[in-house]
Amino acid sequence: MRARLLATAAVLAVTSTLLAAAPAPADPSVPGPPGASVITGRRAGNTEVPVTGGTARFTAPPKLLAALEDHGVTIARLDAHGRISRQPAADAGVRLDIEGGAVTNSGGKVGGELRFAKAGLALLNSGTGKSVRLSDFVGDLSQGALRARLNHDRDLTVGTFTRSATKAAVDTDTARLRMNVRIKVTAAAAARLNAALGTKVFTAGGPLLHARVDVRLDSSVDLRTALNLNRRPARRED
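RE: above sequence
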C-alpha cells in the first residue's frame, strides 16, 4: 500500500511540474515577440484600409457663391506656404490633394479619415480688404465632419456632411472611394468667417462647400473582406 501511494504522489508531482512549465494562453491585448503572429480579434468590416492618395475638388454652392459675390468676396487658392494666389479660383473651385488616411466600414457607412495636403483656399473681401485662410483640411468620415485651420489657428470643425453608404461609395474593381458631399457650415465657423471677412453671409447650418472626392485605396487589400462588402442584406419576411 505504501509503495502504491508513493508512486501516485510521484505521478502527481511530475504532472504539476509539466503544467507549470506550459505556456499560458495568448492574450490578444498583449503583443508577442518580434515575428510572432498576434490575434487581434478584429472582425471583417472593421479593418482600416490605407489611403494612398487622391484629390478633392471644393466648390461653393450656387446660393452661397451668389451671396459672396454680392459682398465682393472671391475664392482663391492657398498654397502650402500660406500664400494666396493672385488669380481667383476657376469656377470658384479649388482642387486639393489627399495625402493619407484610412477608410473603414462603420455601420454600413464610410468611416475613417482623409488627410489633405497643407494647401487650402482663401476668401478675399475686396470691399473691406479682409481675408481668411482655410488650410490643413481633415475629413472625419466617421463623424461626417470637415476640420481645418482658420488663419493658421487651431483646428476648427468648419462643416458637417451626410455620410455615404460604403457599398455605394467604394469601387472594389478600381480600389477607389468616390463621394459627392454637401458640407454645411457649423455655428462656430459661421461666426468666425463672418467676423474675419466683415460680412454676415454665413449662417449656421447653411451651405459651405460642395466636395467631389476621389480617393485611391491600397489595391493590395481585399476590399470586400476588409470593408465587409460581401454581406447580403437580410431577406424580409412577409
